[in-house]
């Protein structure tokens, strides 16, 4: 079983566990509801039993005569009195008994209706399991890929470089060297892999140490780039010093002097910008006898604070050095996973309409994929003349007057070598237009 199948099984199992949980909850609720209905029915039987006893007693009393049983006149008189008193017999149920019965029936109907609704909702969840299985166990994911893309040696080498760079970013240099050796990458490409990712590998190592609550390397790095960080109004240097100060305070009374010396040494240049916050930090000494974990400053000891600090460092460091915090491989994989469901759907539609030739006949996707902002690294230029997005085959061109149009629009508007800008009356040589990059 490969990784895709493992992930698919895990996804289906997650939905299945959710349905099983609902089923168990329904079973518990149904047992409780049925118990309540049984109690109501028992109460109803008792009420009806009391009513039956009352009626029996009344009927028996109406049959008692004043004469002897042996006296024919008495028998006739008794029969006559019985016939006369039967129409006037009292009601079988009193108003209170009728009210109890109506309440019991109403409550039973409500509980039965509730059970029916919960069962219907559960049936809908169960029916979706089949759709979840179909969605996760797609018959052919390879139908959405260009199988000829990796036949080109250059494209294959680019893929190997992207994978090797990803390993270097994670500090797995030995794995990257093994991959380089097995794919027979040239020395030039191999050197580029390590040179281009060396800076991030160092940043990544510091990021890992911050999560382990080790701040020495991070503090040395921020001191080296202190002025650049201040110019960019970065918060990371102060936050690292703040965390180091709170770390010293958390050690107790024996480290109080060291914490005071550290604050006087490193908070000096932040005194103007963070005056109020520094004053609050110094107030933490009041809680040293009882322990910082029992004070309002205990949130500084939480792991969430260290995790947040590590990611702020990673973001600010990457921005300062002009490198991406995500590897090219991770960006491509995540963007591909986002686009895959839409591509599978359009592939099925194109196959049903027998227009699959359009899929392999162009270098662009047949539909527009709306990616998340984290996958957008540059602006996209659309030609204002042809209303088309530029591409490698149709790049944007800047005219001598400063306006930008697509290469196709440039050829359509030019008359020989003469081109008149569609936005201003400047005439120019079409060959003087230069390609620009966004």
TrEMBL record:
Per the annotation, which location comes first and is thus the protein's main one? Answer: cytoplasm
Q: Where is the CTLH domain?
A: 199-256
Which keywords does UniProt give here?
A: Cytoplasm, Metal-binding, Zinc, Zinc-finger
- SMART domains hit by this protein: CRA, CTLH
Q: Which Pfam families match?
A: CTLH
- Kindly give the PROSITE patterns that the UniProt entry links to this protein: CTLH, LISH, ZF_RING_GID
In this chain the RING-Gid-type domain maps to: 383-424
Cellular location(s): Cytoplasm
Instruction: Write down the superkingdom of origin.
Output: Eukaryota
The protein's name: RING-Gid-type domain-containing protein
State the species of origin: Drosophila willistoni (Fruit fly)
User: From which lineage does this chain's organism come?
Assistant: Eukaryota, Metazoa, Ecdysozoa, Arthropoda, Hexapoda
Which gene specifies this protein's sequence?
Dwil\GK23249
């Amino acid at each position: 079983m490969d990784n895709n199948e493992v992930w698919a099984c895990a996804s289906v199992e997650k939905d299945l566990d959710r349905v099983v949980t609902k089923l168990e909850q329904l079973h518990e609720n149904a047992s409780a509801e049925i118990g309540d209905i049984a109690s109501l029915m028992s109460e109803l039987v008792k009420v009806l039993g009391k009513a039956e006893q009352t009626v029996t007693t009344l009927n028996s009393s109406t049959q008692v005569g004043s004469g002897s049983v042996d006296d024919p006149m008495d028998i006739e008189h008794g029969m006559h009195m019985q016939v006369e008193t039967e129409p006037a017999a009292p009601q079988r149920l009193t108003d209170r008994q009728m009210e109890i019965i109506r309440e019991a029936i109403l409550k039973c109907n409500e509980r039965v209706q509730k059970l029916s609704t919960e069962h219907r909702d559960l049936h809908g969840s169960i029916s979706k399991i089949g759709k979840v299985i179909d969605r996760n166990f797609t018959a052919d994911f390879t139908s959405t890929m260009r199988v000829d893309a990796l036949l080109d040696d250059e494209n294959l080498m680019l893929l190997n470089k992207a994978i090797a760079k990803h390993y270097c970013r994670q500090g797995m240099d030995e794995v990257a060297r093994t991959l380089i050796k097995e794919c027979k990458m040239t020395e030039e490409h191999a050197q580029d892999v390590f040179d281009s990712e060396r800076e991030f590998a160092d940043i990544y190592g510091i990021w890992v140490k911050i999560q382990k609550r080790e701040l020495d390397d991070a503090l040395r790095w921020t001191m080296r780039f202190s002025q650049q960080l201040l110019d960019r109004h970065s918060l990371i240097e102060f936050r690292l010093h703040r965390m180091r100060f709170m770390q010293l305070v958390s050690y107790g009374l024996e480290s109080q002097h060291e914490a005071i010396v550290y604050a006087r040494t490193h908070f000096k240049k932040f005194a103007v910008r963070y005056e109020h916050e520094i004053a609050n930090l110094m107030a933490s000494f009041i809680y040293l006898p009882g322990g910082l974990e029992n004070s309002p400053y205990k949130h500084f000891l939480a792991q969430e604070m260290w995790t947040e600090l590590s990611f702020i460092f990673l973001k600010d460091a990457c921005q300062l050095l002009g490198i991406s915090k995500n590897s090219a491989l991770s960006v491509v994989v995540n963007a591909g996973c986002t686009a895959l469901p839409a591509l599978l759907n359009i592939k099925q539609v194109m196959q049903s309409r027998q227009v699959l030739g359009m899929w392999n006949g162009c270098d662009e996707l047949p539909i527009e994929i709306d990616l998340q902002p984290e996958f957008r690294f540059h602006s996209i230029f659309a030609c204002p003349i042809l209303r088309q997005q530029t591409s490698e085959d149709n790049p944007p061109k800047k005219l001598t007057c400063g306006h930008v149009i697509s290469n196709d629009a440039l050829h359509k508007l030019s008359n020989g070598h003469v081109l008149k800008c569609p936005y201003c009356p400047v005439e120019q040589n079409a060959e003087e237009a230069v390609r620009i990059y966004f």
